[in-house]
Design brief:
The complex is a heterodimer of chains A (200) and B (102). With 200 residues, chain A is an all-alpha fold. Chain A contains nine helices and no strands. Chain A is elongated and about 65 Å long. Helices cover 70% and strands 0% of the residues of chain A. With 102 residues, chain B is mostly helical. Chain B has five helices and no strands. The model of chain B has no long low-confidence stretch (mean pLDDT 76). The chains are: A mainly alpha (200), B mainly alpha (102). At the A-B interface, helix 2, helix 3, helix 5, helix 6 and helix 8 of A face helix 1, helix 2 and helix 3 of B.
């Protein structure tokens, strides 16, 4: 068994396809946190996100041939798709969003200062607005804004073209802007325009 | 200038995963050993990986281009030989079979 720590994800996947548990362990340790964050952003709940990542990695172990090196897809791009699909499937089954788990952010014994309460309130509003987006818009937003994927990579992950991805992002941002304006977190566009014209 | 919405989105936080999440996943996977494939499937896998073309469309286009280039070059190499020359050399060979008496 060779060195695994410095191997590329794709090299490790070739070994996982041959049943190498050590290569699998390296992949899991390398990417668990990153894919947990992706799953959390999709479902908004810590324990669900952990279950999603676990399910995705177990599927990878049981059916490693699902990743096809002949397609030339990066392992992470492909695995984002697996994680996002599992998240969407679970949400459809549950048919409801459990709401942002505000307690996930708070240490047990931390004093709840006003500032922190306000911050959590803000986060809750943002999380709820994002959670209410259609699945594909939410996935596009998460991949491009938080996972640092290029538009091309995000489009590949979602199995759509770049134009379609840009359209999803545009619609997501328009919806979010409306929600944030209504909740008073950002100024209304019309009001801002009026103010800038007065200033001019 | 960064948009207010972008600022709000950028402030979105994600809690940390449990510190033992990766180890739990690895341990669970170890309880589900992968069914070993037959040696034939294994060999086929290795061969498929070895000969796999990452960009099939690009490879096909390049092969076509190479074929056209080679074809064009061969055509120009034989451009000086006319069909009359070929016919003459053929009949001349027929008139003087090897070993025939002069």
């Amino acid at each position: 068994m060779g060195e695994t720590g410095h191997d590329s994800d794709e090299a490790l996947m070739h070994r996982v396809r041959r049943g190498d548990h050590r290569a699998y362990a390296t992949l899991v340790r390398r990417h668990t946190n990153m894919f947990f964050a992706a799953a959390y952003r999709m479902c908004g709940n810590r324990s669900n996100a952990e279950e999603i990542v676990q399910e995705a990695f177990l599927k990878l172990w049981q059916k490693p041939a699902a990743w096809d090196p002949a397609k030339g897809t990066k392992f992470t791009t492909w695995f984002y798709r697996v994680v996002i699909n599992i998240s969407i499937d679970r949400q459809r089954k549950e048919k409801k969003y459990t709401g942002p788990a505000a307690l996930d952010f708070m240490p047990d014994s931390a004093p709840r200062a006003d500032e922190e309460m306000q911050r959590n309130e803000k986060e809750t509003i943002v999380e709820k607005a994002i959670a209410a987006l259609p699945d594909r818009q939410k996935a596009a937003l998460n991949l491009c804004y938080y996972e640092g994927l290029s538009n091309k990579e995000a489009a590949d992950t979602l199995g759509i073209g770049i134009k379609a991805l840009e359209s999803l992002l545009m619609r997501a941002k328009t919806t979010l802007r409306g929600d944030m304006e209504r909740s008073g977190l950002i100024m209304k566009t019309a009001y801002k325009e009026r103010r800038s014209s007065h200033a001019g | 200038m960064q948009d207010e919405l972008d600022t709000l989105l950028a402030a979105r936080a994600v809690p940390l995963a449990s510190s033992d999440l990766a180890e739990r996943i690895i341990a669970r996977a170890a309880m589900h050993p992968v069914r070993q494939k037959s040696w034939l499937a294994e060999v086929m896998n290795i061969l498929t990986d070895f000969f796999a073309v990452p960009q099939p469309a690009l490879a096909l286009a390049l092969t076509l281009l190479l074929g056209l280039t080679l074809g064009f070059n061969l055509n120009t190499a034989f451009a000086g030989i006319t069909s009359d020359d070929l016919l003459t050399s053929f009949t001349a060979a027929d008139d003087n079979p090897e070993g025939a008496m002069p």
